[in-house]
Structure formats: structure tokens, C-alpha cells
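Researcher: I'm preparing a figure for a lab meeting and need a structural model of a single chain. I don't have an experimental structure, so a prediction will have to do for now. The sequence is pasted below. Please return the structure as C-alpha cells so I can convert it later.
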Amino acid sequence: MAARHLLFFFALPALGADFFPMSVWYGGGKARAPMLAPQARANKEVWRKDLRQIKALGFNTVRTWLDWATGEPRAAQYQFENLDVILELAQEEGLKVFLQMYMDSAPAWVGRQYPDSLFVSASGAAVKPESSPGYCLDHPGVRKADLAFYGAVAQRVKGHPAFAGWDLWSEPHVINWANPTYIPNPEFCFCPHTLAKFRAWLRRKYGSIGKLNQAWYRTYETWEEVEPGRMSTILSFTDYIDWKAFLADKLGEDLRDRYNAVKQVVPQSTVTSHAAGVGLFASPHHWEGQADDWTMARQVDFYGTSFYPKHSAFVDRDLPWRAALLDFTRSFGFAGGRGGFYIGELQAGFGTIALNVSPTVTPADLRIWTWSALARGAKGIHYYAWYPMSTGYESGGFGMIHLDGTITERARIAGAIARTVDRHQNLFLAARPPRAQIAVIYNPLAHFVGGRQRAAVYGGPQGEVIGIERDSLLGIHRALFPRNVPVDYVHIDHLEPGTLQGYKLVYLPYPLMLPEAAAAPLRNYVEQGGALVAEARLGWSNERGVAANRIPGMGLDEVMGARERDVQTVQAQTAVLEWTAAGFAPLPPGARIPGRWYEEALEPSHVNARVAARFPGGAPAAVLSNFGQGKTLLLGSYVSAAYQAKPTQEGEQFFAALLGWANVTPPLTVTPEGVEARLLEAAGSRLLFVFNHRPEAVTAAIEMPGMTKAEDLLTGEPVSSLRRELASSDVWVVKLTP
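Model: Understood. Here is the structure written out cell by cell.
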């Protein structure tokens, strides 16, 4: 979705780190973030007891916080007592400090000094802060003050031996931590300063007002007349796509400016940020203004995510959901040779939102959740939080210990893991996941078919939006996860010649709207011997919302060896592809593979193309073809989304059959079913992580080539065989040396 001419503009920050933080969120006392307790120095010895307990459990870091309103109550008059006390205590007690910055809680003097800096919704309604969301960063005065505060904090921590790094922005959006319920259909930000920035962005993209008019179907005479669209029309929605692409790029620039503000003062510190809900679950339509993970990751040393598997209610955050979130985060964390990702917030205790209370968070939960992130190459884990929330609608939730200070068993479990990681710092810092053999294309444009009219309902901090876009990315992962077949997510805007080289299978789900620039790398991938699977209505529209003359569009009909004959929407669970092709073990001819939403009748258009499946009425539902040295499979429905919505045995067989068709070989063999195994590579050795997700104890057996020496990382004892009994929810970590 993001404009390519801006997406690659920023230089990559440093990729390495020399410290692995295993922390709990602790701001001093029982105040919840972003609030700070008063009289910090008077309470120093009380806080010391907390830090000693944190250290004794095994954690090496505390993640404290600072909000702008408290830190600069009057212009250029700084109040850093809480930060000073935490740094002093950490140094005295042998801990490091990560600092979370909260600029959304802005001081009132900013609004008085810059009264035209309020966030403005599409309706023209301005938002007056009530402790949040602060003021619009696009106002030049606000931006200058914002960056000056970052610089002042950086000067304060500069050279302090306990200071390790930053999180500059918690869960970035255009507007954070406020829900203006009095505004119907809010959308931000339409203030004059953001609009001026948007016009400058458009000038760089289009070059002239004439080209903009042609793209938007407008008759503007000057750039000053240009504004983002506020409604859906029957004519065009290119303006809406541009607006959302601009917001994604703008958020990247905002984060980069903050990065520069601290890095030029404390260059050796690690600088991070983290998403609320990664793009796998979060729609670009979200009214707050949604960031793009790949864009944000390029602005800091490490970008990551919040991770709340039991946030506040019974939701669909099951094991495959958790695995997909972490694999998606791993994918943008290591994309382009980057160094990994951080878990900015890992749920430490049961969650609450008002009357909603989540299921209990158990010690076994923290064991599985933590090691699952580490097994994918995380470079920092920050548990949220030490104490439960003391105020607000989350009161009583998310604590690792009890509010009265009682230590829990889950705190002991998390601390033991932290101690293990701290003992093997260099190994975990160097560890990287091997490249998967399967790439699933992540395409934010998929959300924009129909423009603003297609907007999905917002569904929570990590996106419980029951949408086909999300399900299309999840279904194939859900099907392959039990087989221990890793999957990489690859951003479609980052496809360049050679990006897909090395993948044996590329899966393109829900591909209705594609950027035109993606067609050539996909074509090249197949020509050079790749195996490409694409779902229905491939390339229906381009990034301007312009429909293709034939479907597949952008010349991909030649690559796929077929074209669309006709299409119709069908009711849920009624789209079925009856498989006719032989040679797709374990998928037998006659297997009925569930589809979803569309029945797209296909017409082979190449001498090497053949019908592989039919719909119940007899129309061709899938076409196999060859192109160059590679091969393709075009599906006339949404098989991945159908599997996510309702997994079936024949759907699972279909995805298993794709492995054989594309010559994908699992990196290891695992028995029995319900045991997960992951690998990391590090400095000539490998780390093997084995998880028992079954409700009962099992004897797990792993077969893999190349092992001559093995050591249990948790006990230090030698391992003679990759066969071991594991209790339910147990984790086994083995260091392998070839």
C-alpha cells in the first residue's frame, strides 16, 4: 500500500545489539503506565525492594516509562526525578533500564502555545486532549517541542551505565490512547498541518496538479485546493488509497525523526518501537491511522509487537493464531537482512477491560509464550507488567505478581527463562531463523477493493476483525503449522528481482488488488523455476483502483495459463472445488476442497494448462500450468480463508499436497502430532526448540540431519538422542553443534 518512492527512502539503522533485555515493566511503585508515582526520591527504598525481587527472580532489565506531561510540565523545565531514581536503583542493584516514551500524554502548555495543533477528524471535529491523545505532530511547533523533549531525555541518560535502550513509541497510530465516542465515524488527522504535509507528499508522487487530477478525477487548479476524500463515490477511490498510503509513510517519518533525536545524543543505545496489532490482524482502514510494519521496522534498530494471547475475553487467540502472529513479526523483523524483533509487551497476567476478564494466565502459558517468541529469533522480551494495573478500565489486570506484592509461580517461571537467556546472551543475540521454503505474500492493498466503502469494523487492539483479508493470510499458516513447515510473510511492496529466489512455493492469497510493480517479480520468479499458487480474481485492480482488461490482470494471465470467464458470489461454505487432477498425493481426485466468497470460472489459455478442479456446476475451478521453468496453480475461490474459517480434512490435504507439488521438504521430522519444533542458527551451531502442545505427556522424537553434539540448554547436560518425554506445555531447548 505504501508509496514505493517513499518506502525505501530511509537509510537502514544499525542492525546489531550487544545486550538481550529480559525485563518486566516497572515505573516505580504501583502506578500504571503512562502514569508516574509522586515523590520518587522519598520512595526510593520502597522501590529498591521491588527491583531486588525482580533481579532475584532472574530478570536483567526493568522497562520504565516517562510521559511528556510529567517530564516537561512547563516549556523547557524538565522533571526527570522518577527516571533518575530508577536509573540509580538499577545501577546499584545490577539491572539495566529500557525507557518507554509516552508523548500522547502531552503537557497542557503545548496546547496553549499552539492552539491550532488539535487533532481534527474528517468531519471537522477537533479533539481536545484529556491526558491523551496529545497534539498533532504535523504542527511544526509541536514537532519541534516533541523532538526537543526526546533530545533532553537523551541528554539525561547519556553515559549512564544502567541505561540500555528505548522504545520511542508504544503501538504507533496517528492518534493514540483515546476514543472520541462523540464523533461519528472518526478518521484522523484532517488538521491544516497534516493536509499540508499530504499535499507535499502528493506533489512528490504525481509531480503536477494535472497528473493528480487525472488520477483522482478532479479539476483542481492549485495544490492548496487539494484535500483527501472524506466519503465514498461511485467514480474513483484512488484518493482514499493515496491518503492511507500517505499516513503509513508519515508514521514512518515521525518514528524516524524521533530515532534521530535520541540516536545523535546516545548513539550506542538500542532504539525500538512496537505495534499494537501487526498488519496480519490490523486493517489499514482503522480510524486511528494504521502503521505499516515493514515501513516502521526500517526506522529503528528493532521493531516488534505487543503479544496478548489472553487479552481480556474469550477470543480466537489459539495456538495457530499465536504462531502466525510471531511468524509475521519474525518476517518483518528479519526482512532485508535486519537483525530481529522485540516483544514490546508480553502479557504477564490475566487481562481486564472494564467487566471483561480473560481466562487465567498460567505459569505454563508464560513458558510457552516466551519460548515461542525466542524460538523465532526475538532479541528482547518485555513482560507487561510487574504490578497489575492500579487504575483505569484495566484495573486489576495484566500483572506478573499480585497488587499486594505476592510473588506468583508464573513470575518464577518467567524469571527462570530470563536467567537462562541472560546466561546465553551471545547465543541468543546471534541466533537467526533459517529462511523458510514457503512465502505467503502480504498485500495491504487487499483491504482496499471498493475503497472506503469496504472498510472493516474495528475489532480490538490486536484485531479481532472477522475479515476475509485476515483469514486469507491465516488459513495456509494454520494448515501447515501442525506439519512443522515454516512460513515467511513477504510484503508485496518489497518484491524486487531476486526477492523470491530460493522459495520453493509462493502463495498469493486474496489477490484482488495488486501494485503493478509486483507483476514483474512474480513473473520472474515463475520463469526461473518457482511454483506460484494464486487465488481468485488475481490482479482485478491495480493500486489506483483501476480494473484490468482481463483477469488475471497485469499480464499474469500468461503466467497462470488461464483467464477468468465469469464470477459470482456464493454463500458461506457453498463454494467447493472438486479436485480432478492426478499426482497430487495425498489429495485424491474427487476430493472436495472448500472455498469461500467467489466462484470464479476459469478458462485455460495455454497449451500446457489443464483444469485441476471444477465447481459443482461443472465450471473449471482451478487450472495448473507451466511458464518458463516454473509452474502455477490458479484457484477460482479463496481456499486459505475457507480453511481458517472452518478447517477440514480435505482442506488440510490440499495444502499438504502443495508441499509435494513444489518439492518442499520439512527441515525436520517430528512425532507425535501436537509437538512443535523450531530451529535457529547461530555462529556455527543451532538451537532446537521443542514444544508439547498436547494436554498430556508425550515422548517427542525429532529427526534431523547434521547433528554430532547436543546439549540441553536449560540444564547444561549432554543430549545423546533427540527423543524425550515432555509433560504437557513443556519446552525442551537443545544446542546442536555440527
